[in-house]
User: Which sequence fits this backbone?
């Protein structure tokens, strides 16, 4: 059972990093396959918190090698400061532990400027996406229009100079003339800084496709870590309120250069309620005091931008869609403890539009904002679950909630978590347990 993919089934921040950390112990490789430092993954081990953005959440296991595959967009300065931060925590982030595909597209300062200047301009209307301002969209645009500068280009100096000069010239015109911005860039300065950054990143260059393929052939475990969530997928999410990459599991194969038949398992991470950061439709958003309580108890504030997350109830229409789009085998339900004090727990079981039931999410924002959500209510357990370490020890109402999520999402529940610490994750499914070294279970 060597190749597994972990993805978020909602709008991100489901606890993917925490689950990847938990099951990565036995993996030879943990591979990030899309997105960039717009992601924020918090892992807590024995009370010690590590906030990861780009570096895969397998980094806390000393025998695991972490890789960034070609579909990632890489902010060199962001990455180096993350590496430095981990080194300060005595985490080994040398080239034996971490590698980067040379094909990754670089996020450069003009991408970040375009991202934030566009968002500032859009704030006048209601089409503001609420991006993380990390330059993700503009970098993926350059990739698609073949304007991108790849990590490998930093080592092809003759070619690099003409790429940088052309891009800086064009981006300056765009910033000034189209976005009305005062921010302008200097090609010589950028070239100089890229030279320094390139030298620091050189030891990390890795043939990710070959490494993944060799590990797979030797029956070693390879774990792919998704960022964001299914509803932020550029093709299948709530477009245009999405990120600029494909977040679904199939993209792991595209990004790492792995055939789709090599994947053995897809694990979906599902928060026991829903959250979303930024703009866009959110059918089960709760704007009442319950939404505020979910935010406070669940500490729903973005890891990257610190913004309060919008909160609401579990949406089984969204989860069912994610199960189908990703080919999910099983779900791990996180943050069950956040519901500990709620007397009633709501789950959306269906949607109606103009009085007619829907089979799936509508495609347009206008329709998605008009849907009527059908809820069912389950009794809460109103007791502390944070010390629970087995399914059997959960209150019966919590077991019923997990069972109900399984039925309405059409998916096996392979585990749950009752707190942010590694020790508060409980995996119950044998196939998933196989990913973990025996003897390490709670
Ligand atoms: P990711 O982006 O999917 O990796 O998720 P984030 O790390 O951005 O957000 C999840 C947040 O919830 C983090 O602050 C975690 O420490 C925290 N968390 C994860 N699992 C649990 C849980 O079971 N209970 C509680 N209370 N917090 C959790
Ligand atoms: P993790 O991996 C939650 C959201 C942003 C914005 C939209 C587009 O921690 O789950 P972008 O900067 O990507 O162009 O912003 O996507 N977003 C996330 N929301 N978790 C994330 O990552 C996110 N990454 C991007 O808030 O709405
Ligand atoms: Mg996050």
Assistant:
């Amino acid at each position: 059972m060597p190749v597994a993919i972990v993805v978020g089934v909602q709008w991100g921040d489901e606890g993917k990093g925490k689950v990847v950390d938990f099951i990565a112990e036995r993996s030879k490789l943990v591979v990030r396959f899309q997105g960039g430092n717009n992601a924020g993954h918090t892992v807590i081990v024995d009370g010690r918190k590590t906030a990861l953005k780009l570096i895969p959440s397998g980094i806390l296991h000393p025998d695991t090698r972490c890789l960034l595959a070609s579909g990632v967009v890489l902010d060199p300065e962001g990455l180096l400061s993350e590496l430095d931060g981990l080194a300060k925590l005595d985490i080994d982030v040398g080239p034996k532990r971490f590698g980067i595909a040379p094909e990754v597209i670089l996020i450069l300062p003009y991408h970040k400027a375009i991202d934030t200047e566009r968002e500032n301009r859009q704030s006048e209307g209601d089409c503001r996406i609420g991006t993380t301002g990390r330059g993700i969209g503009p970098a993926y645009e350059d990739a698609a229009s073949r304007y991108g500068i790849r990590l490998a280009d930093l080592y092809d100096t003759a070619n690099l100079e003409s790429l940088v000069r052309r891009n800086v010239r064009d981006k300056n015109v765009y910033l000034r003339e189209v976005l009305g911005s005062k921010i302008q860039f200097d090609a010589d300065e950028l070239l100089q800084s890229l030279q320094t950054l390139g030298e620091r990143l050189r030891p990390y260059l890795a043939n990710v496709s070959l490494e993944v393929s060799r590990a797979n052939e030797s029956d070693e475990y390879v774990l792919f870590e998704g960022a964001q969530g299914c509803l932020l997928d550029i093709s299948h999410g709530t477009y245009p309120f999405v990120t600029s990459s494909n977040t679904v599991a199939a993209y792991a194969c595209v990004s790492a250069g792995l055939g789709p038949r090599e994947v053995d398992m897809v694990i979906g991470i599902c928060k026991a309620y829903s959250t979303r950061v930024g703009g866009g439709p959110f059918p089960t958003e709760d704007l009442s005091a319950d939404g505020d309580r979910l935010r406070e108890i669940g500490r729903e504030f973005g890891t990257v931008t610190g913004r309060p997350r919008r909160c609401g109830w579990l949406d089984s229409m969204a989860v069912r869609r994610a199960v189908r789009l990703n080919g999910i085998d099983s779900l791990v339900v996180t943050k069950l403890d956040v519901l500990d004090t709620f007397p009633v727990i709501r789950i959306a079981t269906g949607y109606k539009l103009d009085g007619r039931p829907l089979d799936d999410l509508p495609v347009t924002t206008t329709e998605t904002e008009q849907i009527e959500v059908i809820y069912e209510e389950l009794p809460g357990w109103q007791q502390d679950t944070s010390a629970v370490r087995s399914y059997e020890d959960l209150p019966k109402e919590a077991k019923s909630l997990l069972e109900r999520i399984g039925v309405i999402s059409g998916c096996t529940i392979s585990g749950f978590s009752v707190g942010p610490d590694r020790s508060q994750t409980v995996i119950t499914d044998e196939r998933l347990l196989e990913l973990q070294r025996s003897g390490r279970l709670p």
Remarks:
- Residues 437-442 have pLDDT under 50 and may be disordered.
- The chain has two domains: 3-98+206-436, 105-204.
